[in-house]
Amino acid sequence: MTIATRFDRYLKQHNIAFQTIPHEHSRSSLHSGVVAGIPLVNLAKAVVLEDHEGHHVMAVLPSNNKISLSRVNDELNASFHLVKEKQVYELFKDCDSGAVPPIGSPYHMSTLCDETLTNLDAVYLEAGDHETLLKLDREAFNRLMNDSKCFRFSSQVFH
Q1: Architecture of domain 5-150 in this structure
Q2: Are 48 and 83 a contacting pair, CB within 8 Å?
Q3: Could you read off the pLDDT of 94-104 as tens digits, one per residue?
Q4: Residue 27 half-sphere exposure, CB side, CA atoms within 13 Å?
Q5: Where exactly are the transmembrane stretches of this chain (predicted)?
Q6: SS3 of 153, please?
Q7: Long-range contacts for 62-66 (Cβ within 8 Å, ≥24 apart)?
Q8: What are the structural domain ranges in the chain?
Q9: How far apart are CA 128 and CA 130, in angstroms?
């Protein structure tokens, strides 16, 4: 059970309460939810976006949802595209590939939060490895997302 160094420091500095949820080794955040028995709507995933100037933004959304780049770009009056996986791994060197914690601040990135997550009783997050999830109650998650811009920018892909 390992929490990514930057993420762990950020949680401690901001007094964010959480529970660690160990689970068997997984291949992706979606698989983490399945092996941990977590409802996928309650598991937040990170999608890293980049604009034409190379600025990065992290979008946080339910793991069973798909991001709408057009909604993001309309809301921000911008032109973001998805960052390729290889580049994501370079940005999050203290994390295992595919286990990026869904919070941009520790990585000097602005964060967008899909507002559907802010209304849940509990939200689960990747911790930075493939064997640990963090469980935050609504208050702790909303404190974690305090500096984020929250709006609806995703839709459910499967049930």
Answers
A1: Alpha-Beta Complex (3.90)
A2: yes
A3: 998 888 999 99
A4: 0
A5: none
A6: coil
A7: 62/114, 62/116, 62/117, 62/154, 62/156, 63/29, 63/30, 63/33, 64/30, 64/40, 64/156, 64/157, 64/158, 64/159, 65/114, 65/116, 65/154, 65/155, 65/156, 65/157, 66/154, 66/155, 66/156, 66/157
A8: 5-150
A9: 7
